Amino acid sequence: MHYYVVTGGPLTSKASGIIKDGEVIAADKGIDFCLQNGITISLAVGDMDSVSASGLERIRSSGIPIKTYPVEKDMTDTEIAVSLVPDDCEITVVCPLNGRLDHIIANLQLASSLHASGRSIVLDDGITEVHFLAGRDEVTIGLDKWGSDSAISLVPLSPDRKVSGVTTKGLYYPLDDASLQFGSTLSFSNKPVEGALEIAVSLNEGLLAVIVSRSE
Question: Which of 27, 31, 115, 188 satisfies CB 3.0 to 4.6 Å to 77 for a cystine?
């Protein structure tokens, strides 16, 4: 089963195309985004401090389950929503990857930590998608969503050790058993080779974010 966690923030209309078959958990103002884009909500969660009054009333009158939390709490609405997804399910967090930097960092940290613990999780706003690799790991990403001129960056997330054994396929600047250092931009702003339909990234050790962005 695939779960989509839809958050608030500056989501564009492109984000509505992310959601396919699966369950949708709308977190706070994500409720408004779902209602505006005709997305069926399975569960609404959060402290409800940013959802519109009309959106909250529509949810309540529709009979959709709601889990309400206090404004003063130890987790963001997004973290609460993700925590409600069953352990064996895949997660796509539909969240802004621009806007409030603290929320972006929090979502990157949350997703990378969950992936490192064995969860399948991706961040996506319809323009940029972030995959995570941890330990001996690999990912293959189709390019049909972005086109062959997309921008691709590999971002080391392990400050205490190098990300090692990084090998890529389908990228213009290839890597073969490379080591990447936290804070280095060596592996930023790559692109697919001409005609590539997908890219693949693997590594042996460390924590890595693979960021694919649509060319605008």
Answer: 27
